[in-house]
Amino acid sequence: MGTNQVSYKNIERLNISGTEYNDLIVGNSGNDTLSTGNGGSDTIDGGEGDDVLSVNYNGSAAIATTYNATTNTGSIRSGTNQVNYKNIERLNILGTDYNDLIVGNSGNDTLSGGVGNNTLTGGAGNDEFVYNNDYYYSKNTDTITDFGGVGKGSNPSATVIASRDTLQFTSDGLTAQNLQLTPHGNNLEITFENLANSKVILQNFKLENLDNLPATSSQPAIGNILFYGQTSVTDSFDVFDANSTQTNLFNKKTVTFLNDLDNNITGFDNSNDVINGQGGNDIIDGLSGNDILRGGAGNDTLIGGSGNDSLIGGAGNNILDGDADDDVLNVSGSIGNNTLQAGVGNDRLSANASTGDNLLSGSDGNDSLDISGSYMKRYSYYLEDSRSTGNNTLLGGAGNDTLNATGSTGDNLLSGGDGNDSLNISGYYSYSSSFDYLEDSRSTGNNTLLGGVGNDTLSGRGSTGNNLLSGGEGNDYLDISGGEPTLSIVNNTLNGGAGDDTLDATNTKGNNLLSGGDGNDSFNLGIISSDGVPSDLATQTVNGGNGNDLLSMYCYYATKGITSTFNATTNTGSVTADTYLVNYNNVERLNIFGTDYNDLIVGSNGNDTLTGGKGNDSLIGGNGTDTFVFYNYNEGVDDLYDFNATNDLIQISAFYFAGGLSKGSLSANQFTIGTSATTIAQRFIYNDITGGLFFDQDGSAAGFSQIKFAQLSAGLSLTNNNFVVVG
Hints:
Layout (H helix, E strand, L loop, with lengths): L14 E3 L6 E3 L6 E3 L5 E5 L6 E5 L6 E6 L4 E6 L2 E6 L3 E5 L6 E3 L6 E3 L5 E4 L6 E4 L9 E4 L13 H5 L3 E4 L9 E6 L2 E6 L2 E8 L9 E2 L8 E2 L1 E2 L10 E3 L15 E3 L6 E3 L7 E3 L6 E3 L6 E3 L6 E3 L6 E3 L6 E3 L6 E3 L8 E3 L6 E3 L8 E3 L6 E3 L4 E4 L3 E4 L7 E3 L6 E3 L8 E3 L6 E3 L4 E4 L4 E4 L7 E3 L6 E3 L8 E3 L6 E3 L13 E3 L6 E3 L7 E4 L6 E6 L10 E6 L6 E6 L6 E6 L4 E6 L2 E6 L3 E5 L6 E3 L6 E3 L6 E3 L6 E4 L7 E3 L8 E5 H4 L6 E2 L5 E3 L10 E3 L5 E4 L11 E5 L11 E4 L1
Parallel strand pairs: 1-3, 2-4, 3-5, 4-8, 5-9, 9-11, 10-12, 11-13, 12-14, 13-15, 14-18, 15-21, 22-23, 23-25, 24-26, 25-27, 26-28, 27-29, 28-30, 29-31, 30-32, 31-33, 32-34, 33-35, 34-38, 35-39, 38-40, 39-41, 40-44, 41-45, 44-46, 45-47, 46-48, 47-49, 48-50, 49-51, 50-52, 51-53, 52-56, 53-57, ...
Antiparallel strand pairs: 6-7, 7-8, 16-17, 17-18, 19-20, 36-37, 36-43, 42-43, 54-55, 55-56, 64-69, 66-67, 67-68
């Protein structure tokens, strides 16, 4: 007991908190408030009056409780902490971080499970069960074994009122709007949309027995659920009787739960209604207002009406019609074949992780249509698969739309319609053996992407299916490139259509067909990563179509030199690097970057840019004004077989060549014809007898000996104007 002591008299109520030691606490004849300490083995006797015992063991073991209603005695234990009590009318128990078993007494108790999978029994009286998800990452499920509902109708009996319990949600994200009530066998499961770790199970409890009722002239407000911030029961939600077939809601601007019948229900105009269909094949029309409509189980039709609505389909074959304004239509995780129609406005349509064949139609406005997903595995035991597996149709309609089928495994059709649209089936593959981690969001089906009118972006990067990408009218960007290590190994068809399009198939190992159509198109091909060399011959076929088209090919990581051909009469040619082959026709300009080996690069009839790179390369520009690119002076000696001093250019890098070069045209005093530099300003020396082209970094043999980096024909009228200096 220590040396601390108090003597009292004429005290009607006591408020005593125990210590961490073994306490003996006895109340008086009044209404006492008694608390255990955080430790010890305590004995507490409330005495006469309406007494409250509060228990908050923050221990290392779960709570276990017992209660004997006949003797009004009980015990509460958590590890070495224990209290034996009697003559207590109300309990206030806060659970631990473990799986607690908490039993109230015959009075009006307050029980909170804390973290873990807890089992709570209130006993007789009007009990309050408190739930929060402040411990979001570890919170699991509370099971209440004897929850007392308000019952059917608006005038519950005295017996119902006497045993009516309250479930109070005390966290910010747990609201009536995202409340979900799901019958499961004989139980009712209470969850919240988008909060996976929050669940309460009411055992042997029917949905229709759960309700909140406002005060009337004959009874006070009573109810079963309080939400965060509420201090008293309000008419926050309504529940239809199991046999009700009415066609209108009870109240405006409230949350309503229907039953398992086939309901045809209409909301209120100018009202933000929340209507939950539950089971049955329901038709729910929200009318005007910012409504939330959930179909639940069954084949449901949800009509948002005007306003910014949120429509959630659930299981079954559903029709979601957003109507006017900016709506959210969602059938993610659905197993049915759904139709999502957005209407006018900037809408978001989602069918992520669905398994059916869905139609998503955006109509007017800047819409987002999404069936994306991924497969993840971590630490051998954690698995998430949110990929859509059906054959889906996504129609953007007018406006600047975003259509996304990343990670889908079905054969999908994505059509942007009018506007500047983004169509995406790209994905990636990531694996780490050291961290036992795998994530795969690549699309595996054979997809069709149609851009339509407008400047569209169509992306199949990393996809493993045989896809068709068609840009339509406008200046479009079509991309099936493979980024290391997610190389595209399949056979794709890319049609640019009218407009100045860009078609990118770099790092692809399949046999692809690229057609530019009308307009000045750009084609990007080549091997740009260390594992980009195809194991078998991969043929890229390029048809530039009408216009002034450009083919760019980059072969940084090839293991053999380039060989190329060109037929000026038929305007056809080929470029080969390792097992990577490009056949092209109707292409007016080439931009070819060579390998680290000895390349043979042949230009076209137009204005080409040829870069030999490392090695002793042979470069043939052909007709037109051609540019021969040198990044450094020590990468080998390139033969420029048909260099024309009247039209052609030599491009050099000021950074890598150094020697005081500046971007722009080469100064006249930095160029000379002869065998060596004659002034310290001269950097480039052309020997018109041999055709050799040299670089001298300081214009003096004393410090830097000139190096030959190119071989031209002899006797050319070469000048400083044939050089252009870049950064």
